[in-house]
Amino acid sequence: MAIECLVLGAGQQVGKSCVVVSMNGKRIMFDCGMDMAYHDHRRHPDFSRISEYGDFDKALTCIVITHFHLDHIGALPYFTEVCGYRGPIYMTALAPSMLEDYRKVMVERRGEEEQFTSEHIVECMKKVIAVDVKQTVQVDKDLMIRAYYAGHVLGAAMFYTKVGDSAIVYTGDYNMTPDRHLGAAQIDRLQLDLLITESTYATTIRDSKYGREAEFLKAVHKCVLGGGKVLIPTFALGRAQELCILLEDYWERMNLKIPIYFSSGLTMQANMYYKMLISWTSQKVKETYSTRNAFDFKHVLNFDRSMISAPGPCVLFATPGWISGGFSLEVFKQWAPSEMNLITLPGYCAAGTIGHKLMSGKPSKIDLDKDTQLDVRCQIHQLSFSPHTDAKGIMDLVKFLSPKHVILVHGEKPKMATLKGRIYSELGIRCDDPANNETVCIPSTHHVEVGASNTFIRSSLNPNFNFSKMSSEDESDSRLKDGKFMPWLQVKDERAAEGILVEEKGKRAKIVHLDEFLLMLGEKKHDIRFAYCFPINTDNLEDTKSTDVSSSSNALSVSGRSSWLPMLYIKLSDELSGGNIQYFGEQIQVESFSVSLCLKDRCPYRIVDSPPNKCEAVFFCCAWSIADEKLAWKIISILENRNYGTL
Amino acid sequence: MKFTCLSKGGGFHFPPCHVLNVCGFRILFDCPLDLSALTIFSPVPTGYRAVVDEKDSDCQPYSTLDSDCVTWKRQKIGKPLDANDLICAVPWYKIVKYLHLWNVSFIDVVLISSPMGMLGLPFLTRIKGFSAKIYATEVTARLGQLMMEDLVSMHMEFRQFYGPEGSTFPRWMEEEELDLRPSALREVVLGKDGAELGGWMPLYSAADVKHCLQKVQTLRYAEEVCYNGKLVIKAFSSGLEIGTCNWSINGPKRDIAFISSSIFVPAHAMSFDYHALQGKDIVLYSDLSSLDTMEGIEDGYSFLTTDSFSTLSWEESAQSLLNTSEHLEEREKLYYLCSCAADSLKASGSVLIPINRLGTFIQLLEQISASLESSSLKVPIYVISSVAEELLAYTNVIPEWLCKERQEKLFSGEPLFAHVELIKDNKLHVFPTVHSPKLLINWQEPCIVFCPHWCLRLGPVVHLLHRWSGDPNSLLVLESGHDAQLALLPFQPMEMKVLQCSFLSGIKLPKILPLLNVLQPKITLLPEDLRQKVRFTNVNPFSVFHYSENKTLIIPSLKDSSELEIATDLAFQFQWRNLKHENMNITRLKGELHVAHGKHWLHSGNKPSKSNSSKSRPLLHWGTPDLETLLSILSKMGINASVEQGVGVEGSKKACIVHVHDPKKALIEIGDTGTVISAVDENLASLIFEAMDSILDGI
């Protein structure tokens, strides 16, 4: 089985995020965004690729929305109300409330015929199931989803999705560094087959934000001191609050009295959401909510249309961002021609918008439409205050999660290619950056489920200590390795789970311990062992012995006999490297192999023909089981060598 | 699995406490304090009262125990209690009675279901050797912290009055002293069997509380945590209060649901998520609230009995769980309470509400202010508590823990609770203590005061009771279920009206059976006291065990095997063998066993396996070898052999020996339980082994 990943949007582009993932029989759509740069059908993902005949309820198990930005949720009302999807939709609690506000923005922006009405949105939002951070939601028997804090905007989440043994994470947009009002993305170390991550800033590495903040404050302060007006076009939630906290602090510190305005009720209302959704904000904001809520702005006032041309300096936060239309455009038209004024653009602006034009170079004239041209004499300040992670953050996340595979979306093609290369070369993880409407297939994980007996589990969890001695050659150089004293005896815990998997007809497979197995069958064990009795020439032994023990003259004396085994032991220890050789006085044991002195006159296992001088040969009897077959014959050959050896 | 109930608790403020042994881990459920026992202490005399007392002069807190006094007190033992019988000392606090008999260092996990179940926790965490992992929901931990901090700060008043405590055993706990106390009081101290004396502790400090909170790992609803790889623990909303929870514990061998006091359709908190507890193997039913309502309440003072106790209908369907009659009933109570309050206010009496249940408190605030509005009474509402301000602010920033109706307020842009507006409109005033300067400036009577503590021994309520106890127009609202007579003892004679009111604090008796039918467990554990009340028909799909205090119940295991997941790469290495006689396929397997996420996993491990040839060889054989077959197989291999029946080497008669001469010399000694192969070289030995293998079953 494979995981199939169909990228319907945000493939090698920023806009209309939409990825459909099929795994183990489930099909999940992540995000359902709209492309702001287009006005025709291209603004929506090509839903016909999910189901040719438009039977989306059958084709999709559920939809998961990461956050309420239009490029992630914009096409959802169209999909549910116009295309007719009626299955479950999961998103964090805040997302539904913001969509209606966005619709207004859209209508204002172009005044064109609406793709969906506000009734559509209300109906659509009724289908939404709210998910809380870290809440584990069992969508059905097999499919589980869990949201993690993404830090990108209030209510933004990354989604962990698991079907059977396969698991993926879809990040949506995220930020790996905390800012003034939001925390950094947080996720557990998970076992993943696939990570689908955004890559807006695939190659950018940002420095500390303090420099950028200071620069922003300086520009604003300079402008208002000179009597100018500052326009900050933002969306309702996100940068507006971040910058406003920053300005509030600064106003307090510098004791400034110049008014700060919020353009519409929308932003004021957004601030109220913030006040109540403290749990989505940064640690610092959380800690201080009871004494002073950071979103109770003292200096902020409501702005009225009539104040656009009023004299005197001010700071205005106006929606929508990117100066894509609506009120921010209206204000822009009035303020742009004056050199005293300042336009501050926080973060990314979508292609085709005025914001984008202002950011790419400093135009002196801007075409509002076919007939109108606007002189732009005001100052432009670009702010890199994006709540997206930078390249380092993406790399950190990929490294932290160490998935088997990575897919990049939501970025610009050349930059994505660079990042893709880095992920493969630095982390050794396969990575893809599919274009829109392309499908990527990756293998998925599976496990076989069986039962396991208690005895098996217990025996497998019991420590199995393995004692090994340092061999004598290593002794001199390795015992004092790195100034550390290595002990003579090394103990390793080599616990291994060994058992028998039994598959009976009509019953589920079960693992049992070896000891249980025969009981289960009701059979008696039949032990097959090997035996071998062989002589060792005592002449040779005598030679060696006489050098050691001079007092002994009788070869068959008791003391003589007892000294042969130790000699074999020394021999074995020298020649058999790595074996765990134990000497028990009566016998030498290596794993299941044992050797001892054979005192019988006629041993049945004495298969080998005795040497001619029978009285001078000493017999040794060995026994072993099949597991140590190879080892046993090796030892025998070592010992027999002694017989004809060079000693 | 073993289950021990340490305490059945008593009411909303003293939840039950249990210990569960599962998967080799010991889990403690809740660690409450029995704050109702505080009533045996005398409240701190207020300035006003102290003057009065001096005239009586026999109840000085520091009075020595002279002989006159002793005889005087002796006479009193049989008589009804009066205020002088109460203990004048810095109060101690009573933890769960059998908990102190356990070695807390052996506890592995503590699960806290409610803020009330947390109040005794600092006593555990300050013990050296306590190392358990503590889990509670974020909100429970926060509310529990506030309650403990409030307790510590209210307790300070005693410390200031009596001076610092000695480290020794307090005087009142000594045997001679206790013998002089009236029997009712002595029973509170010692318990019925005298075992409870060890449960008394001097109160923890603010530092202990802080230290305790640092050890708590907070959770959200349905967040998964894995303890030691084996237990997957999740908290699900119980509906009793904001943030309270029931637990789901999944282990490799059984899945357990722990049900604490739960409310199906609460008016403020998120509702009881019983769906998440469906299909577990075992249900530990620990909602003992239905027992409390059954015990006769002393309603000498109450002129309102709100206990509705419908007859049990056994055929209730699962749907009935969610009927809203409870909800409406609770609303009725609040309405009634408000109308009583309004009556008192109209008679220019004040209303004192020492109710510490957060949900009731918040709803009462909303109701009372609304009813004041409608009856155009301009009366200030005061909330006096050291943590009130933070508590009220906190309730407004936790929408995700509230019921649907409250959450919808968020999306329509309203505050979650009305108290935000009330404070803004100067209708509600919040003060930390009775002597805060702002309060003194603001104070107006008649008024409505919400303040702790419900036991009437601690906090601002003591001062206000002393002030108003003589006013027949004033009203005291008490929660029923406690010994009101004892509680009001120090304030006698009471002219003040007392309204006792019970609030829903758990699953009602008729709903227990339908709930269990919905949950479909295989085993249910119920308290012994419910044996008579909840009768099961014979066709029960599940077996029922009854537990009682301090008796360990052993629950049989349901499965004889655990679940185990085998990695695919390991599964591909299997070499299956078909058994001749049974319909069975078997394979040897070897790998590394891991325990993670409540499951066992078998991976192929890092070690390279031994050479394949040795792997394919069966290591274990069984059956009886047949000589004829053996000889024919050997001859097919080109081995000639002859059989020598008879006496074996070691005298075992049944053993027979097969001699091999061609191609080389070998010997096969076949006995009853085993075979020995002896051959001149490796090849022949291994050929003979193969022959043996083929006539035996092996693995």
TrEMBL record, chain A:
Q: Which SMART domains match?
A: Beta-Casp, Lactamase_B
Record's GO cellular component terms:
nucleus
Q: Which residues form the Beta-Casp domain?
A: 240-358
CDD domains reported in the protein's UniProt record? INTS11-like_MBL-fold
Entries under Pfam families matching the protein: Beta-Casp, Lactamase_B_6, RMMBL
State where the protein is found: Nucleus
Give the main localization category. nucleus
- Judging by the UniProt lineage, the source's domain of life is Eukaryota
One GO biological process this protein is involved in is:
snRNA processing
Q: What's an example of a GO molecular-function annotation for this chain?
A: hydrolase activity
For this UniProt record, give its keywords in alphabetical order, as a comma-separated list. Hydrolase, Nucleus
Give the matching InterPro entries.
Beta_Casp, INTS11-like_MBL-fold, MBL, Metallo-B-lactamas, RMMBL
> Metallo-beta-lactamase domain location, by residue?
15-228
So what family is this one in? Belongs to the metallo-beta-lactamase superfamily. RNA-metabolizing metallo-beta-lactamase-like family. INTS11 subfamily.
Tell me the protein's name. Answer: Cleavage and polyadenylation specificity factor subunit 3-II
Source species of the chain:
Carya illinoinensis (Pecan)
TrEMBL record, chain B:
Q: What highest taxon heads this organism's lineage?
A: Eukaryota
Q: Which Pfam families match?
A: Beta-Casp, Lactamase_B_6
Q: Recite the UniProt keywords alphabetically.
A: Cytoplasm, Nucleus
Please tell me one Gene Ontology term that the record gives under cellular component.
integrator complex
What positions does the domain Beta-Casp occupy?
361-489
Provide the protein's localization.
Answer: Nucleus
Tell me which SMART domains the record gives: Beta-Casp
**An annotated GO BP:** snRNA 3'-end processing
Task: Spell out the family assignment given in the record's similarity comment.
Answer: Belongs to the metallo-beta-lactamase superfamily. RNA-metabolizing metallo-beta-lactamase-like family. INTS9 subfamily.
Q: What is this protein called?
A: Beta-Casp domain-containing protein
